[in-house]
Amino acid sequence: MKASDLFVKSLEQEGVEYIFGIPGEENLDLLESLSKSKIKLILTRHEQAAGFMAATYGRLTGKAGVCLATLGPGATNFVTAAAYAQLGGMPMLMITGQKPIKHSKQGQFQIINVVDMMGPITKYTTQIVSGDNVPFRIREAFRLAEEERPGAVHLELPEDIAAEDSSSKPLQPSLARRPTVETKSVQHALNLLEIAKSPLLVLGAGANRKLTAKQLRAFVDKYGIPFITTQMGKGVIDETHEHCVGNAALSSGDFVHRVVEHADLIINVGHDVVEKPPFFMKDSGVQVIHINFNSARVDPVYFPQVEMVGDIANSIWQLSQVLSPQPHWDFSCFAPAIQAMRDHVLEGSDDERFPIYPQRLVADVRQAMPKDAIIALDNGIYKIWFARNYPAHQPNTVLLDNALATMGAGLPSAMAAKMVFPDRKVMAICGDGGFMMNSQELETAVRLNLDLIILLLNDSAYGMIRWKQANLEFNDFGLEFSNPCFKRYAESYGAKGYRVESAAELLPLIKKCNEQPGVHLIDVPVDYTENDEVLNRQLPRRSKEI
Predict the structure, then answer these.
(1) What is the distance between the alpha carbons of residues 93 and 155, in angstroms, rounded to a whole number?
(2) C-alpha torsion angle, residues 375, 376, 380, 383 (rounded to 10)
(3) Which of 144, 142, 153, 147 is nearest to 118 (CA)?
(4) What is the pLDDT of residues 26-41, one digit of tens each?
(5) CA separation for the pair 58, 19 (Å, rounded)
(6) How many structural domains are present in the chain?
(7) CATH number, domain at 48?
(8) Domain encompassing residue 368
């Protein structure tokens, strides 16, 4: 068969449902083969958005999401999405076209070395030089993308290779099981837990994969050990659980950091060094047990004493088989900070000032969205408020990026989430800066008939950088801009647009939009003037008093 047909059949063998992207003339053989396939092509308005959608599909399913672009500028537009998937541990396959490699027909027009460009930001990148190699390259790409630690892979399919004939056949994925932790590692961890006085669980990004939530919840229920979550660990265990301390949304100076300081043993589950650490190790300091699919990547602030390497759920189960609740465990030292954290989250949740304050905004969104609803956050100062003040009830119901922390991903991520879970409520939460980086995907969302809410937080500035600027006591300079009328902007794409005029309007409007089909964009003026005072000054001052 033609190599492009073999390529598509190999993708079908891998269980691919969607390909997100924008084809070019170098992809036309592949496009023709796709037209005869059950795989759905999701045409986007920018390759970066296609990459974000593919990465989010991978994040939610554990199967590599697939995206497509042409050569040159199409391929370069994948770079940010590749880094997003690679740093965030999201399985994704990028397919790009290329000019014929056997007989040049246009010199160097549009040609760059895409394979070399992708090298530093992928787990695997290669050019396919023979139609007979297609099945092997695709199987290897999916294997590497999906195995721990997941990430981005890239295949370049040149135009002449796609058109040639091949006698190869698709490869069937092999049955593979993740390795389990070695018994001696379990014993070493047990020894530390038995002598600890105040152990603490920290749940990170890796714990939000591979269905670890059930075993972790059972572990916490059995032993009563308090836990905190990192931003990308939100929802592994219901954050309204009585033993939940809170989320490490800030790098330091919050109440959760007081709890960490009181702990004499940290059980760090799913830690990934791409996230800002919720604690810093010191020589002769706190003892740390590292539980993850992979061994610890050591850096100046992370060098655990014991590592349990293997499937996380199995590691937790094995530990629970040999550990008994210790009568000398004492968590009373955590109690003041835990209570202070819970009290502080409630402060401002009923604030009636307008433009709306972040505390009220987060509280209203949490009240309006069901427990299984998914919110997909772009990158901005509001991400800290949602990480800290929005309790997640289930794994992967708060999709935020604390790895690459890129702007522009919120809307595409929400769109992919809605495609994966069509029966669940989904909301994109974007600042006006990040939203405008991929706002053209409104057309894609409308064309796909998605039921989706976009909460657009409007402060006419790059608010995250403005907050940092204020913290450094620099001049308020260079970060403001003007915006279009977002209501009419949404309507021009066929979506429904709204502009909130008071704090009291937001909650009933979100509920109304949740009950109606279609794409709804809600423009919410937001006031960030207290960010510096609350997050940089008030919190460190109050937490030191605990």
Answers:
(1) 8
(2) 40
(3) 153
(4) 999 999 999 999 999 9
(5) 12
(6) 3
(7) 3.40.50.970
(8) 347-537
